[in-house]
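Researcher: Here's the sequence for the chain we discussed earlier.
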Amino acid sequence: MTELFIRSPGDNDWESCSPTEIVWLDRRLLSGGRDRTLHRAPRCPGLRRVSRDWELFSRDTTHQVYVAPYAQGQPPRYQAVRTAAQHVLPVASARFEPVPVPLASGTWAVSIGAWVLLLRVESSSDVSVPPLPDDQLETDYNRIVADHPAGQAGTAPLPDAPARVRAFFAHNESARMAMAYYYQEFILGTAAPQEVPMPIVAAALNLTGQGAVSDYKRKLQDCIWNEQGHQRELAGFLLTNSLINLADLEEARRAALANELNGQVDEARRRLRYRPRKPGPV
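Model: Thanks. This is the structure I predict for it:
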């Protein structure tokens, strides 16, 4: 597991973070409540443990969040963090959060507006892992991989399956983004993840038809097992072999947002004869 420690601006002490709670990087933590340009929880960036690791996410609709490696003794200035940033979380929109950033072991400087705080991530295999809260249980695709490591009915993936999938995605970017969008809850580590309905994927990414996602899945099963019938194993294989990841999901979401802004999503819905279900009465 990994442990997370945080050092707030103006504080010389490291504080241990509870793995069962979200750590909100809000107005109070960053500025003692003084900077009114910063948001309060839950409209601000935050830190949460997913499975055994920590990730940084943002619901901030005003500020980008910059993350850079930090060396002991460096002055924690936001200009330096932005220059050296290895990760940048864009401003959240009303519809989408940016894809979270997983935090590797080490010390990190995080800049939000003109404020900088420090994070220290430590790996520890000797510390017993406390039980996760219900909303952070191990994801279904991990359980599927554990239960069916060799695929359906004992059929193992082809030895060169990852290379075959990479070649397919290299020649078909729409398939790569569609799979990332379709399996986005699996990528994000959502508890009990569900696939995004295929009509929504097709409309968001302006695909040729609702059957495009099914066609991509069949092609991937051929690439991996040289046969059909591996619906449950597909997500686990793609993720455990890093064939779809957070970067792919972020790219797919950017494409979906661009399609929505230029009217292509509405056009695709008409073409696909798909109408989003309206919420019922409360």
